[in-house]
Specification:
The protein is an alpha+beta fold. About 40% of the residues lie in helices and about 10% in strands. Helix 6 crosses helix 7. The longest helix has 26 residues.
Length: about 525
């Protein structure tokens, strides 16, 4: 995922697009829910049944044989393993790796997408009927079909997926737990919108399509719960198609696809590898390996000008260290929402805290003395809405070292705090199409802001802190007591990291606006 644009964050309820995944959950043989029972059924590359699945070593060996067969080339310096990783399967360096070295290359033909699945023709013919706000329906249908197809060529790849019934995204938490642990972070609201959108998409598009083509979709996969799980998989594991030609319609939803091998890598903000797109003139001649055992050389059939996705080292990686990818500059609330984990404080240098735009408006309304001032403030807010600086569902995004929505926040503070006559003149100039001076606001210059600006910003921060169920001191006490922290559940620990990171940013704002 690209770095967040320096614009106000808004949420339209669509499932959030994600690049290469990596939720920190242990992977197990893939399981699909049985819609008629309360238990899951495991699906292995060989057969379906409650006892299906392969031992870890066999699953990895099968995956690597599959890689060799499709021309997905791994460097002899890397290995797929559970040992030496932060969680589940990952990729570790068998030898020291230098920046710029190729770790693996994935040919476009090995990507799992609507164009490469076994029902690609049908999905293309029905493309118009499968359009949705998310743009994910064709890929999700491809996954639903391939998961239950007895002879699916993708089975060795699916064998390294996490167990669907054990995903840790907050959308799978009980609502009470989600609200209790993540109140104030923005995650519960985002999840609720996702769930509404997923349900609507499933019943209006996906289920009718599967029923119309019942020979291709068994009753086992006609399940809202399974669809929700696959949305989470796509949210956490997928990458996005690079434009093949200039002039591609950028307004169409960006279609996701699955990138085998890339989605094995775990994530950290301080990553040591990057996924790059390129067309190569020669295929790499590399070794496929499992742990310390080389299991075979593979020289793929060369396709001239084959497009490849390449994972390249960007930092020195010592022998035995894990190889980490990144999905972009993502705050902890985004990581837990889309991937089911958060980075411990202070590791996530991309963490942010939000001040809802309407919260700043409410703080300004608190300072009005009479109805006339209240009406004028509402007029100013409407003016900001027309400028597209604010919105009812937008948020001002504050990072550790920068204000990601600096223009929006600076303009809003200026318009809401300026004297009435100055506002009239400012509004008239905007109405006449005169060029506005661009406003900016950085973390370092907050103490130098006008007093009225600092007071309004401070009041907004205080209102934001009131939305959390606990205060900063409570979080600090939990984090500083290792014995108590270790007794917390996984979800409690991850939610604590999200809350604490946000509150640290907000409390720094309090200090800067004092």
């Amino acid at each position: 995922m690209a770095a967040p644009a320096k614009r106000a964050r808004t949420s339209d309820g669509a499932p959030l697009p994600a690049p290469c995944r990596v939720p920190r959950v242990a992977r197990a043989p893939l399981t699909l829910p049985d819609p008629g029972r309360g238990h899951a059924t495991c699906f292995s590359p060989q057969a379906a049944g409650p006892s299906g699945g392969e031992p870890d070593g066999d699953a990895v060996a099968g995956f690597l044989r599959w890689c060799a067969g499709v021309g997905l080339e791994l460097s002899p310096k890397v290995a797929v393993s559970r040992q030496g990783t932060v969680a589940g399967y990952g990729m570790v360096a068998r030898e020291s790796v230098q920046p710029g070295e190729l770790l693996f290359a994935v040919p476009r033909s090995a990507l799992l997408s609507p164009d490469t699945c076994s029902i690609s023709g049908l999905l293309e013919r029905e493309r118009g009927a499968l359009q949705s706000l998310s743009g994910w329906v064709p890929l999700l249908l491809a996954l639903l079909h391939e998961l239950q197809a007895p002879a699916s060529s993708w089975s060795p790849y699916f064998a390294l997926w996490p167990e669907l019934g054990c995903l840790e995204h907050p959308m799978f938490w009980p609502e009470e737990e989600r609200l209790r642990l993540l109140k104030g972070t923005g995650v519960p609201e985002a999840v609720e919108k996702d769930l509404v959108n997923i349900r609507s998409e499933y019943y209006s598009i996906v289920l009718p399509f599967m029923e119309a083509h019942s020979g291709l979709f068994s009753p086992t996969v006609r399940s809202l719960e399974l669809y929700r799980q696959l949305v989470a998989i796509v949210m956490a594991y997928s990458s996005f198609q690079e434009p093949l030609e200039e002039g591609d319609d950028e307004n169409e939803p960006n279609s996701p696809l699955m990138v085998p091998a890339a989605d094995i890598l775990n994530h950290t903000a301080n990553h040591n590898a990057n996924l790059e797109y390129s067309a190569v003139s020669e295929p790499p001649c590399l070794v496929i390996c499992i742990r310390s055992q080389i299991i075979g050389l593979h020289f793929p059939t060369y396709r001239e000008n084959e497009d490849y996705l390449r994972m390249v080292a960007i930092q020195p990686i010592p022998k035995g260290h894990e190889i980490f990818n990144t999905y972009g500059h993502m705050a902890n609330w985004q990581l837990i929402h889309m991937y089911g984990f958060a980075e411990p404080y202070p590791d996530n240098t991309d963490d942010t805290a939000d001040i809802q735009m309407v919260t700043l408006r409410d703080a300004a309304l608190q300072g009005t003395k009479d109805e006339a001032e209240r009406l004028l403030l509402c007029e100013r807010w409407d003016f900001l809405c027309k400028l597209e600086m604010v919105g009812e569902e937008g948020a001002f995004v504050i990072g550790r070292e920068e204000v990601l929505t600096e223009e929006e926040l600076a303009t809003t503070l200026k318009v809401l705090c300026m004297p009435a006559e100055e506002f009239r003149e400012y509004k008239n100039q905007a109405g006449q199409g005169e060029e506005r001076e661009e406003d900016s606001l950085t973390i370092t210059n907050i103490p130098k802001l006008q007093v009225s600006w600092r007071h309004l910003l401070r009041d907004s921060v205080l209102l934001t802190l009131e939305t959390y169920a606990t205060d900063l001191q409570t979080e600090q006490d939990l984090l500083s007591n290792k014995e108590v922290y270790d007794k917390l559940s996984w979800r409690e620990q991850q939610a604590l990291q999200v809350r604490y990171g946000q509150k640290m940013i907000l409390h720094r704002l309090l200090e800067l606006t004092s």
